[in-house]
Prior knowledge:
Layout: H1 23-31, H2 36-62, H3 87-92, H4 94-99, H5 107-125, H6 132-152, H7 170-195, H8 200-214, H9 218-228, H10 241-266, H11 270-278, H12 283-298, H13 300-313, H14 325-333, H15 343-378
Amino acid sequence: MGTQVFVRSETVQAMPPPVRDRGLVRWTREHLFSSPFNTVLTLLSVLFLWWLIPPLLNFLIFDAVWTGEDRTACIVTPQRPRVGACWAFVIERFNFFVYGFYPIAERWRVDAFFALLLFGIFWLLTPSAPGKRLAVVYFFIVLPLVSMMLLIGFAPLGLAYVPTSLWGGILVTVVVASVGMVFSLPLGVVLALGRRSTMPAVRLFSIIFIEFVRGVPLITVLFMASVMLPLFVPDTWSPDKLLRALIGVALFAAAYMAEVVRAGLQAIPRGQYEGAQALGLSYWRTMGLIILPQALRITIPNIVNSNIALFKDTTLVFIVGIFDFLRTIEAARIDPQWATPVTSTTGYAFAAIFYFLCCWAMSAYAKSVERRLATGYRR
Length: 379
C-alpha cells in the first residue's frame, strides 16, 4: 500500500500570544516589574499612594460637609466625630470667589465676558473651526474692546462704570493671566529678534531689558509698576492700579518668553536662512514664513510651561492691593461666621483644584498640538 499524504487546503489561523505577552499583563511586566529596581520602585509608589490617597479622599469627599449656613455645620460634634472639607463654606461664598465686590446687579457682564472669552479660545484653538483669520481678529481686536466696555462700563450702551477696585476673585485672575499670555508672546518674539539683530542699538536695548527683568523677582516688577510708574506721568494721567499690574506682568512674562523664542531660533539650521536668501525673500518675510513657524513649533513645550508659570504667578498681584482669586479666599476664610479648623484648608484645597484644572487643560491642549504637528511633519 502506498503512503497517503494529507495536504491542508486552508491556512491555519494564527493562535493568540500567551496571556503574559499581551494586554494588561504585558504592560505591567514591561513598565512596572521589568527589573528588580523597577519592582522596588513600583512597590514603594503603591505604598506611598496607599498612604496619601485614602485620607485625601476621606477629607475631600467622604467626610466632607456639603450643606450648611454657618460654621456650626463644619464643627466636630459627638454625633459627627470626623469632619472633612467644609464645602458648604465654598458653596456659600462661591459668588464672592468669582466676582469679588463686583456689583451684584452687574455681574451678568462678567458672565458675558467669560462666555465671549471661552468662545474665542475654542474658535481660535480648535483645528477644524472655520474662519481662522476672523478668529484672530475677534480674539485680538474685538474681544479686548468688548471686554473693556463690558467690565469697565460704556455709557452710550447703558453700561454703568465699575471701577477696577471692585473687581476680584477669578475675574481678576483670568484678566491678568489672559493679558499676560496674549501680550507676552508677540513682545517676546520682538525682543528675541532684537537680541539677535545686527543693529547694535536694538540688540543692546533688548539685552538690557531681558537681563534686567529676568534678574529681579516678579514682586519687584509689580512694586515698580505700581509705585514708580505713576511718578513718570501727571496725576491726572496716572494709570489704574490694575492696569499697572497688567503692564508689569506682561513685561515680566515677555522677558522670559523672549529667551524661549530665542532658543527656538537658535535651533533652526543655517540652511533655512540661506535657502530663504536664495529665493530672494526679505528679512521679515523670511522670519514670518520660514523661521518663526519652525521655531515656535519647536518651543511649544517651553511656551506652555511659561504660560502655566505665569498663570500661577498671578497670585502675587494681591501684594500690590489687587483682589485676585487667592486674596478672596484669604479674606473669606477669616470670617467669624465660618471660622472652623477646616475652613482654611478647604479654601486652599478649592484654590489648588482650580489652578490644577486650568494648568492641566493648557498642558493637555499643548500635547494635542505637539501630536498634530509631529504627525504632519512625518508625512
